[in-house]
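Researcher: Structure prediction, please.
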Amino acid sequence: MKPTRGSSFLLAVIGVGLTVLLSVLFRNAHEVGEGITSARKVELVKRDQADNNSSPNAKRDAFVQALLDQMTPEELAMQIHMTFADSVVGPTSSNSLFSAATRYAPLGVVHDWYPLSPPPSPSNPDPNLYNALQRLNLNFSSSTPPFDSHTPIPFMQLGECLHGVGSFKQSMFPSPIALSSSWDEDLVYKVGRAIGTEARSVGIHACLCPVLDLGKEPRWGRVQEAWGEDYHLTTAMGVSFAWGLSKNATHAASDAVVPVVKHFIGHGSPQGGINAAPYTGSGVREYMMEFFRPFKAVLGRGGGRGVMMAYHEFDSVPAHVNPFFYDALFEEWGFDGFVMADDTGIRMLQNRHTVAPPVSSPLGDADTISQWLNAGGGIQFYDFSLDEWVNTIVSLLSNSTSNSTSPTSPPSLSLKTLQSRVRGVLNVKWDLGLFRPLLSSGNDTEPVSASSSGLFSSMSSSVGTSSRSTPQDNNSTTSRTGSDPDSDPNSSLFVPPSISTYYETLTAKHLPLTLEAARKAIVLLENRNGTLPIKLSMSNSSLDSIPKKIALIGPFGDILNYGDYSGPWGASPVPPSTSTSTSTSTSVVNASSSGGRIAGTLREGILGYLEEFNSGQSEEGKVKLVTSVGTNTWLYNAQYGVPSYLLSPSNSTNSTVVDASNVHASHGLFATYYASTDFTDPRFTRVETPIRDWGLYPPFDSGLNTSSGSGKVVVLPSNNFSVIWEGELTAPVFDDVDADSSELNEVNGFIGVAVGPNTTARLFIDGEVVAESSYPPPASLLSASSSSSPTGSSSSSPSNLNPNGSPTFQTGTFLPNIEPLTYSIANATIPPPGAGRFTFEGGKKYTLRIEYQTWNLAVKVENVNSVNSQVGLWWNLVEQGLGNGTALPVRGDGEQNGGDEDGSDPSLGVSKAVEIAKSSDLVILAVGANWNSDGESGDRGTLGLSVNQTQLADAIFDLGIPVVLVLQGGRPFAIPKYYSRAAAVLDAFFPGQSGGQAIADVLFGAFNPGGRIALSVPYDAAALPVYYNYHVTRHALSYTDIPSFPLYYFGYGLSYTTFSTSNFNGSSSGGAQTFASGETIAFRVTVKNEGDMAGSYVAQVYLLARVSNIVRPARQLVAFKRVYLDAGESQDVSMTLDVDEFLPIVNRRYEWELETGDYTFALLENGGPEEMGGQEAPKKKKTKNKKKNAKKPNEEGF
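Model: Predicted structure follows.
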């Protein structure tokens, strides 16, 4: 343990344009006690420390230890075995595989489930699917020896919740890198609170987030999941998000979840940006001082109770078995929650890292599992089958009793070690309140025999019954002794059956927050000559300054773009549309308008502003919007969901519709759901966009979104069903039509309906079959009467059906989210799967009809996107040519466009976009990246736009028209030539479901952008790394060909208004001009909005380089605050810095030390140096030092 050095230390606070110098003298630390060391241990959740004489976890620890002592080896193994939900639910969605899944012991952990249940109703007060399975598991535990000898152990459901619940049917917020760019801790807390509430509403106990990797390598495809390049910002945002998820660490609340931090640790700095590649960086000290800090903070004060290990290796030791990581977690920090592997991360010890024998070796699995558990690991993530996992652990326990000391002895595992790994799981289940309703009255420490306590005496003991309760089922209303878990606010054992906490209700409630988050995340990078906001008001601009024609160009102008972990195409869920439910006995539709809708796509958002402006203008005064996608989002023809605002349920031909006039105003198509696969037996109707899935259960209609709000709940009887969607599609206006350019208002593109496995779909446009997916199905699934369309139209004669059906019937036609480079090279110009060629005329309405049939024939493969059935109405509006050998249009240079044998040529789309844009007054160029380039395994070697988007951007900029560059994507773009030429630049990242509205709000000035980038923007990928907190030698010299500095530094961002700062000063909690270990430093500054528009300012305080035992970075963020001010308003802003958390360094002996000496803190505009716009040159002024006795430092760690 290293004491602090015995010399004075000086705190200097430097403000922009002013200086206040404060100082403090410490006594020699040897006189006051030991310094900060890595061995310090502090309780993880300090709020529970009622007094210093008793442990806040004494009752829990006693209960868990007694329970562990009574558990069989098989039970212990099951508590750390992750069960894929469909391995229980089964193809019939009736928990038919429960017996097989619990053949060794009751369920311990369940994942990839997301059970969206019907809402409670008078006929079925608790139809909750999670509740039913939890009761089934508890009943099995309490009635089956030997498990009935102790308190039954509930299972814990895990779920992905990165920026929305992984059902992909609930709220979808901006990605973490976008949320971090808000620099707004309160906002991030609110988003975490919303996601935690929505997760618990579907029975999730633990969310696999936040990702706390530092994004120091932006080529890494998962950098979008992180909170930026800086450990202080990541710590602040991670704590805020986790604090929201966990409801201020009240994990047992019925609307709170356990945060599971990942990836432990250093996963965000892989060599070359390749996912799971070895760590690249400066070594142990960087880990301790930067990578460890966010994890330690979230586990210590953010409510984190789980840890997921990382794929990569550090110092040639895989993270999953690295003792350096586990020693920090358990020995130094005193962590007592659970540890889990990442998906197949344990198997990687064998097949990639090769630190364990291969699978083919007789001892391969045993050695691998032994290494994992003995190192400190716990829950496995789909690495081993149930039999492999349980039987291997039992065998390892047997080996541990052989007392053999031979070096060739087989791998082993002690019972004590196994119990220790399970203890973390049980600790968290206790913290969640899962045991609370199961304990006998007056005794909450000793495990109770469930069979003797009578807790479940009246519960049905049947196994394999339907998990979807019907009015005749008793499972949902069974009474139990003891406390009622359905109404216990201190237990998350069951989901309360309430409409107010129903997932659809919560999703609607959180819609405004998705818009607020998207707005506050947008960063204004450039705004030359006040180009933005776009002026539409005569009161603020002259008529000449209002653009007559705006061209929206680029592949991101009219698509949803949520980012990684957002379902198919990175665009689920589709923003909500009006839903209707009808009783088939009355066949009446009564849908209400979806007024007040928040736009999902950018074009929809822009149209909202233009329609409002144009409504009061003459024809000559109206602002026109023309559109061209120009090219694909990546290197091949992809599938893009048709936006719901372009769909209307009008003109339905469905015979069950009596009055369709009431659904005209809704967005989406009119859907009729049938209980059969042959379009017979209709059960309910609704208006929706056919871009969705139904999870692991049959479709249902909640009846909550009818005009009366009292619709009937209707559930299809099985997963084998059919649907017909009908209505109109309105093609966007590509060009304002005149006699000379009518061909510019047409696009020869693709359209289709993507389907999952064991599913078919047929798309009719104006009565003609245009596209088919996986059609026909195998002949064995069809009867003679169902082999043709319900309308009587069929493109495949029943007598000629392939007995095996379509070649894609068993695989489906959805493109994967990330295709490898080899796919792009081979398939750059071919149509997407299931595509039909179609010529779209701008502004024209087309009658659509989709016929969809699906059969659920098998248990799914373990995966977050494994569902029974899914559908996606898509199109591709990149100009493809005529596709029939006909001569193609002539380009503007007089040369005929080329093309492949199908008539497709990537340059056609660019040429058409240029022709459409060249007569406009302003171009909004929407480019960037989405699901097919940015995400897990979406690593890049370059950071520019894709080649095809670069061609488009070059052509548009060459027009000489003012260009507003709108970027979307999950990483920074190294595109200096566009930044320098653009009239304005916005970066919206992955903005979530309300991103289109948010960008439009910023473009037209309804919201003043105030975000600051969390990842420095490099000039070129060759200049990496470019993070702001570099050591001075990193940029002491520069390259001879490109700049080594970033284009935009961490913390950079502009506003439509201007701000001034004054009165910057600081003091510590221990004295006005002193600080010591155990104290906090408070920084204060006055910020004034000097402009005429409301806006926000981010005050940023940095610790500057100082004389130290080790080399320190040029600047390091230590405090920040975003403040929102009306025009002319000023506010005193306070920021705090915890001395022990952020100021100690790891000295040359790798010991924690709080150094004495001079510390200089500066208020800067961003993390860049003065010559890069980081700060103005300060004026210096000194005040007299003031001595103070040093306090004994708290020990390091928690």
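Model: The domain at 517-577+598-636+907-1026 is CATH 3.40.50.1700 (Rossmann fold).
Researcher: Thanks, that helps.
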